[in-house]
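Check my protein:
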Amino acid sequence: METSLHRELKYLHARDPLSVEVPLHGYRIDALDADGCLVEIQHAALSGLSKKVAELLGAGERVRVIKPIVQSKSIETMDRRGGKLLRRRKSPKREQPVEVFKELIHFTLVFPHPRLSLELIHVDAIEVRIDRRERRWKRKAYEMVDQRLAGVGERILLNTAGDLWRLLDGPTLPKPFDTAMLAEAIEQPRWFSQQIAYTLRRCGAIEQDGKRGNTILYRMADQHPIATPRRRVRRQVA
């Protein structure tokens, strides 16, 4: 089921109200933007979009994937769908841009590509839930029925392998480095830094530079495009 957040982001990026849910190349495209680029809003895992994006790129199209990053979330619990508000609270959870590497590891079949851009957009969201009348074992005590868009913030545009370094906040690393050094520099677990290194290598941002015992060493690729500057925008959505 499409959420209100997904629908609102489609109209926010479409060139006009008629440029949403456009049939093309056997697919239904979320939106066409003002430049004629195909826009796909992907709140779910990026891996689910790989085949569609690959075929659209193969057809010669320009594709723009919008990935919402929830920076703040309010939770509204109702007694039933469309019913009375029982309570409202602020969620302590905040998604971080670096977490997208957990999905990029399965998106390297199409990224980077000269006609593909991946845009991380910080959003404020309202999640609507209803209490479950009967809670079963290992089942949540609530059902999420919708998400709404409350605000749009910073955008991080990723076009090239070099742009991926900005998600790590420019760590200082020795030459060469291993995944343990990367984990320490970005303050993340070793297993996650291994996923990041794999993604960076598949995308061409780093190269293998021998071994130290059984540990693989890496170095920055000799040449990669300079990262695109971030665009900062914040506005409230009615």
The first helix runs from residue 4 to 13. Residues 60 and 143 are 41 Å apart (CA to CA). The longest strand covers residues 142-158. The chain is about 20% helix and 35% strand.
